Amino acid sequence: MRQKRAKAYKKQMNVYHYTFKFREPYQIIVDDEIVTTCQKSSFDIHKGLTRTIQAENKPMITQCCMQALYDTKNQESINLAKTFERRKCNHREAIAPADCIHSIVDINGENKHRYVVATQDLQLRRKLRKVPGVPLVYMNRSVMVMEPLSDASAKYSEEWESKKLTGGLNDLQAGKVVEKHEEEEEKDDEEASGALVKKKRKGPKGPNPLSVKKRKKGEATNGDQEGGEKKSRRRRKHKKSGEMQGHEGGESDDGDGNGGEDMEDRVNDTGDRIVNETVENVPTQDTTHQQEIDQE
């Protein structure tokens, strides 16, 4: 294939790709006549289609076209056609191959399944030229050729390009000020639809027990708390022996003459029991001095 013709084919396939949303591998419908023509001229149809389309492709043949090949009793053409993928045409009784291909390609004036058609039938190609977005391939002597863009395809491509450029400027809804209550209604609808689609998340319902901080010993239990408030107790401190010696004449802190006995209530961490501790009498400086004189 010449370089100039290859560039033209590549440009055409780009139009079909971007405008009509063709995707690889391209599906190519092959009829019985082109199979017979390629078999007589010893032309490799698989390589020819790949070289013409310049992309990955998938040749397909309908059951009606296979029946037409069976009627010719050309075993070599039948074996070649069996290498293609079979496309169901849903015709209970075999009809003419041209009518079969036209029925599966032209669906309400549109190439819905995005087929590339390879056929030698001139009448079929004339019909398919009126349908936008149908690439046509045929054999010219021993060369496979792709037809240029049809008038319907070129017109559709131009309109599609103009819509992309001026569609937003000519749109009546463009620049419309949306009121607040309309925005709120739209948000509510989106949230309602999102709530239905949202799936239930799997996971622990409560906190991870390993991450929970342990309770300290000094903290009160639920039984010790009344009215949601924690009981507070004031603890008393002991007076040291040095402080007790600072008092003159062995004066005692208690008026009962108990020798400085100090009764203190101590409460343990749980607050369940009370222990009374007595501070022993501490000898003063005067009594210590009298004992030394008696020893002498």
UniProtKB/TrEMBL annotation:
<dbReference type="InterPro" id="IPR006984">
    <property type="entry name" value="Fcf1/UTP23"/>
</dbReference>
<keyword id="KW-0698">rRNA processing</keyword>
<dbReference type="Pfam" id="PF24779">
    <property type="entry name" value="UTP23_sensor"/>
</dbReference>
<comment type="similarity">
    <text>Belongs to the UTP23/FCF1 family. UTP23 subfamily.</text>
</comment>
<dbReference type="Pfam" id="PF04900">
    <property type="entry name" value="Fcf1"/>
</dbReference>
<feature type="compositionally biased region" description="Basic and acidic residues">
    <location>
        <begin position="241"/>
        <end position="250"/>
    </location>
</feature>
<feature type="compositionally biased region" description="Polar residues">
    <location>
        <begin position="278"/>
        <end position="288"/>
    </location>
</feature>
<dbReference type="GO" id="GO:0000447">
    <property type="term" value="P:endonucleolytic cleavage in ITS1 to separate SSU-rRNA from 5.8S rRNA and LSU-rRNA from tricistronic rRNA transcript (SSU-rRNA, 5.8S rRNA, LSU-rRNA)"/>
</dbReference>
<keyword id="KW-0539">Nucleus</keyword>
<dbReference type="GO" id="GO:0000472">
    <property type="term" value="P:endonucleolytic cleavage to generate mature 5'-end of SSU-rRNA from (SSU-rRNA, 5.8S rRNA, LSU-rRNA)"/>
</dbReference>
<dbReference type="GO" id="GO:0070181">
    <property type="term" value="F:small ribosomal subunit rRNA binding"/>
</dbReference>
<feature type="compositionally biased region" description="Basic residues">
    <location>
        <begin position="231"/>
        <end position="240"/>
    </location>
</feature>
<feature type="region of interest" description="Disordered">
    <location>
        <begin position="172"/>
        <end position="296"/>
    </location>
</feature>
<dbReference type="GO" id="GO:0000480">
    <property type="term" value="P:endonucleolytic cleavage in 5'-ETS of tricistronic rRNA transcript (SSU-rRNA, 5.8S rRNA, LSU-rRNA)"/>
</dbReference>
<feature type="compositionally biased region" description="Basic and acidic residues">
    <location>
        <begin position="265"/>
        <end position="275"/>
    </location>
</feature>
<dbReference type="InterPro" id="IPR057776">
    <property type="entry name" value="UTP23_sensor"/>
</dbReference>
<feature type="compositionally biased region" description="Acidic residues">
    <location>
        <begin position="251"/>
        <end position="264"/>
    </location>
</feature>
<keyword id="KW-0690">Ribosome biogenesis</keyword>
<protein>
    <recommendedName>
        <fullName>U three protein 23</fullName>
    </recommendedName>
</protein>
<feature type="domain" description="UTP23 sensor motif region">
    <location>
        <begin position="198"/>
        <end position="217"/>
    </location>
</feature>
<comment type="function">
    <text>Involved in rRNA-processing and ribosome biogenesis.</text>
</comment>
<dbReference type="InterPro" id="IPR029060">
    <property type="entry name" value="PIN-like_dom_sf"/>
</dbReference>
<feature type="compositionally biased region" description="Acidic residues">
    <location>
        <begin position="182"/>
        <end position="192"/>
    </location>
</feature>
<dbReference type="GO" id="GO:0032040">
    <property type="term" value="C:small-subunit processome"/>
</dbReference>
